[in-house]
């Protein structure tokens, strides 16, 4: 069975401090209503690269505590500061996370040897498995098939969260590494990734759209491609409307419409304007209600 994971958001107060109850409400919604297989904590959707080390730890702890074993958890620990990434990995493992994930080191155009060393150092001495977080459009780091092969030589590296629309590379990865886990990360292209044998998907929009995504996966497994297309079509109208309305704050605004107090996004992300609020209400009414 293919797994569906929501990328957990971090709720903030208006003053950009962490809103603990908001995170707890979103975790509960994912477990109780979405019946989600797991949560990806501290990724892009968690706005993690804008958080302090302490805040990132707080988010892992709250998510771990609220989940209470009812879903799989993955802690994204990647950072351009390797000292921080190592500290976060150690912390997550001590909390009880069985799987971590890390974006490659970014910004400085590191060499592949430096990237490999970064993963080896994060994992050194830890009893944990790791999923590479590949998201070239945001990180600026593109890994080739050969480079994935070298990283996958480390038995603790069990797979990749693949947020990339290079479907040729995705097919070659699947073919070359049948035993590694591949979780697809572009929610609007799920339809194209399903036939390539992905193990599941991890995404921001599943926080609100899990039922439709699960129905799409079920339709795919039943061989009903017409239904797969129809479901992806509605999902994409929803996702593109969110993107047009500023996606991260808008996911939270739609949650608010549903009575889940998801709070704000952190600056430099935007606080909602009246227009964004009206847009989110419309998205809720059209696609979620
Ligand atoms: C950058 C980002 O947030 N990527 C997410 C996962 O990797 C996706 O779930 C997207 O948010 C989603 O596909 C909308 O573009
Ligand atoms: C999957 C995704 O959205 C994330 O990195 O949070």
TrEMBL record:
| One MF annotation (Gene Ontology) recorded for this entry | N-acetylneuraminate lyase activity
Q: Does the keyword Flavoprotein apply?
A: no
Please state what class of enzyme this protein is: lyase
A Pfam family in this protein? Answer: DHDPS
Q: Which InterPro entries match?
A: Aldolase_TIM, DapA-like, Schiff_base-form_aldolases_AS, Schiff_base-form_aldolases_CS
- Gene3D superfamilies according to UniProt: Aldolase class I (3.20.20.70)
Q: Which keywords describe this protein according to UniProt?
A: Lyase, Schiff base
The superkingdom listed in its UniProt entry is Bacteria
EC number(s) recorded for this UniProt protein: 4.1.3.3
Q: What family does the entry list?
A: Belongs to the DapA family.
Instruction: Report the protein name in the record.
Output: N-acetylneuraminate lyase
Species source reads Loigolactobacillus jiayinensis
Q: What is the lineage of its organism?
A: Bacteria, Bacillati, Bacillota, Bacilli, Lactobacillales
